[in-house]
Amino acid sequence: MKSIEQIAAELQGYDPKALPADTVNAFLAELVEPVTDVERLPLMQALGRVLAEDIVSPISVPPHDNSAMDGFAFRGTQLAPGQPLTLRVVGTALAGAAWRGEVGPGECVKIMTGAVMPEGLDTVVPQEFARVDGDAVEIPANVVRLGDNRRHLGEDLMAGQAALQKGELLAPAALGLVASLGIESVHVLRRVRVAYFSTGDEILSLGEAPREGAVYDSNRYTVFGLLTRLGCEVIDLGVVPDDPAQLEAAFRQAAARADAVITSGGVSVGEADHTKAMMRQLGDVVFWRIAMRPGRPMAVGRIPRSRLTNGAAAELSISAKSASGPTADCAASYPKDSNAVLFGLPGNPVAVMVTFLAFVRPALLRLMGARPQPTVYLRAASAEPIRKKPGRTEYQRGIVARDADGRLTVRTTGNQGSGVLSSMVQANGLIVLGHAQGNVAAGDLVEVMMFDGAI
Ligand SMILES: Nc1nc2c(c(=O)[nH]1)N[C@H]1C(S)=C(S)[C@@H](COP(=O)(O)OP(=O)(O)OC[C@H]3O[C@@H](n4cnc5c(N)ncnc54)[C@H](O)[C@@H]3O)O[C@H]1N2
Ligand code: MOO
Which residues form the MoaB/Mog domain (predicted)? Predict the structure, then answer.
């Protein structure tokens, strides 16, 4: 396994004091190893999990040629351009059972959507187009062509064809596809466990009385939400004051129980920051100033579990309440020579969310074993000028909407301070102004990372 220094050294233009945002993801991709433990789950429980096997279709879907419409099935070779066609109905094919019988020239079968196409028939006229008079059906000229409204055997998947690949994050469509193959359970990778705590003497837990200089802990809730939406098991270690013994206990407990540890606060240059010192002591960590806004300071690295066994850990005096039910409390047993990945996020509430979306989320997806997926950006016209300095990536909270001409436009949600969560709540995406980009004029196209269920 490469050391943190090696990974950093191999990155082009690596500068911990002004790191381009894109480089961070390349670094994290090297740092994070996917989990490998596999379990078999009934399909419904596998939603949001990562597939640990390739799925080859055991059957063809659909299993037979069938009708895409309620109407009349017939041989399409009888159609002549510009000519109506009159046929006689000789039977009815319902979905769920094959209709058997002879259909000769000039004949048709009344057929329902999904019903097996009777032998030799290849075309269906929807009933709305047909003029029915007793058992006679007239198909007006030019309403159907040969082969219309017939669904072919295996047009979704043929038996033996690859249906899904290992690494697929099982979304509703994938669950449906697996079910369509008659498969009841799948092998998936285990859920990733992520421990989180907020740091800082000024941070109040909910339920505590307000006091001068203190603020309520919001990061614990945003991170809990982001992790839960991602499908991680959250080990919630609450708020840890800026006290070396308590921080040490929290880091030890977190790294012993989780694949990844996320903290917020204490990674900047402030004075009372024991968080950085403890990360240095227990982990192999780099402290970055990323060329971005918000989210400039960030620490990442590994906490080697071998280091956790030495020395008596102080008791964690905070209550380590589980945020995601009983499973989060199961003590995980990791090999002693393994590592927990560490993400030390900045304290400012919006910086936490932005660094999570930009860096932590892709890294956790990798940890979960999911295939890398490029972030999809939507391009929208900026409704206003935006000031932007080249040389850093800026993430502005935005609302994408359609204007009267049907064009996608985006406007910022007001106060962009990195502690202002209300403008994050109003936003439906982040306007991402790239490293080299300068000022934006009203009407310029900008890229927007849509929240799309992540937030
Ligand atoms: N001289 C400098 N000062 C600061 C710099 C810098 O480069 N030079 N960077 C600024 C930036 S950008 C950020 S972001 C912050 C990050 O500082 P820390 O990670 O050390 O975070 P704290 O100082 O602990 O907190 C910052 C801010 O966020 C509030 N906070 C912290 N945790 C929570 C929480 N769980 N819930 C709600 N709010 C929280 C905290 O009260 C502070 O207001 O540093 C800047 N300063
Ligand atoms: O960039 Mo800091 O991370 O603004 O809040």
Answer: 195-366
How many Å lie between the centroid of ligand 2 and the Cα of residue 108?
71
Residue nearest atom 27 of ligand 1, based on CA coordinates: 348
Q: What spacing in Å lies between the alpha carbon of 345 and ligand 2's midpoint? A: 10
Q: Which residues of the chain have pLDDT under 50?
A: 311-330
Structure ipTM: 0.96
Whose atoms come closest to the Cα of 241: which ligand? Answer: 1
Please give the number of the atom of ligand 2 that sits closest to the Cα of 292: 1
CATH class of the structural domain 66-151:
mainly beta
User: Which architecture, in CATH terms, is 4-22+191-367?
Assistant: 3-Layer(aba) Sandwich (3.40)
Cα separation, 390 vs 293, whole angstroms? 12
- Number of other CB atoms surrounding residue 171 within 10 Å: 12
pTM of the model: 0.92
Q: Is the CB of 418 under 6 A from ligand 2?
A: yes
**Buried/exposed 74-85: b ≥16 CB within 10 Å, e otherwise:** bbbebbeeeeeb
Q: Cα–Cα distances in Å, from 91 out to 76, 118, 130, 153, 260?
A: 18, 10, 16, 22, 64
CB 296 within 8 A of CB 290: yes
